[in-house]
Amino acid sequence: MRTTMFRAALASFICVAVPAAAQQTVPMRNGIPVAPNGIAVPPPLPDKSVVYHTAEGMDIRATVLDSCGSCTRTARSTRNQSPASPR
Known about the structure:
Layout: H1 2-21, E1 28-29, E2 32-33, E3 50-52, E4 60-62, H2 70-79
């Protein structure tokens, strides 16, 4: 009986203490929570392709396309090539 009461008291304490300890302090301004600053501005995108080397030896090439239609110009230029010509 005494062990059961101790276990019940311990379980009650854990159920209350653990969530209370997990609370964070939030900065306030005039009683209103202040939003976090957000993410940092990334560096500008490169003009050329970027190659990422992987551990598997299958390198990844990433190319930035602008919104003025460079992908359609690239598609047209590759479409006009004969199948035997190297790309």
